[in-house]
Design goal:
The protein has 223 residues and is α/β, with parallel strands linked by helices. 34% of the residues lie in helices and 19% in strands. It contains eight helices and eight strands, in the order βαβαβαβαββαβαβαα.
Length: 223
């Protein structure tokens, strides 16, 4: 099986017992934890900041933490998340005036860097920065809320970006976020994704182990 990664989004976790809930999902086989950081400015919702990330590290969470910044402007908060324990930090190109400067800021703070493309954001952004990226995150919903339906047009975009990554010969993860579930994860993988953000599909399920195991079973059949 390919090096697939499942990244549950804590946006759908139980915040009254967040440390325990995150620990359970990791024990169930999750590869990394996805942070959806929203500022009620770039997107119409407000979630959480670096203190939550730091608290999870202090609780004892040692897995990779993948921070998706839906904030504008973005540069100010990057060092804070790096200090709090983030491993990957991704951001939207619309949230910065200087794309390469923001990528370098993430790397200078010791994290792996990625950019996020909304459903209507053109892939052409990648032409100018793909050589410097560790991750490309494609949104398969419009950012702002969990539980949205997967936009099928994203599949074509995934294939296009996969070709760009292969041509770059760089080790870049291709992550997809939004509406990922047992019914479509196989199709998303076939299109070229290798990292899957699943919030409500995992955290709202009755059995984390069973849900993640079933996802891996689907992925194991992808050729």
């Amino acid at each position: 099986m390919k090096n697939y990664k499942i990244a549950p989004s804590i946006l759908s976790a139980d915040f009254s017992r967040l440390g325990e809930d995150v620990e359970k999902v990791i024990d169930a086989g999750a590869d990394m934890i996805h942070f959806d950081v929203m500022d009620n400015h770039y997107v119409p919702n407000l979630t959480f900041g670096p203190m939550i990330c730091k608290s999870l590290r202090e609780y004892g969470i040692t897995s990779l933490i993948d921070v998706h910044l839906m904030v504008k402007p973005v540069d100010r908060i990057i060092p804070d998340f790096a200090k709090a324990g983030a491993n990957y930090i991704t951001f939207h190109p619309e949230a910065t005036d200087h794309l390469d400067r923001t990528i370098n800021l993430i790397k200078d703070n010791g994290c792996k860097a990625g950019i996020v493309l909304n459903p209507a954001t053109p892939v052409s952004y990648l032409e100018h920065c793909i050589e410097d990226l560790d991750m490309i995150l494609l949104m398969s919903v419009n950012p702002g809320f969990s539980g949205q339906k997967f936009i099928n047009g994203t599949l074509k975009k995934i294939s296009l970006v996969r070709n760009l990554i292969n041509n770059s010969e760089k080790n870049i993860r291709l992550e997809v976020d939004g509406g990922i579930n047992l019914e479509n994860i196989g199709e998303v993988a076939k299109a070229g994704a290798d990292t899957f953000v699943a919030g409500s599909a995992i955290f709202n399920s009755d059995n984390y182990n069973q849900t993640i195991s079933l996802m891996r079973e689907v992925l194991s059949k992808i050729k």
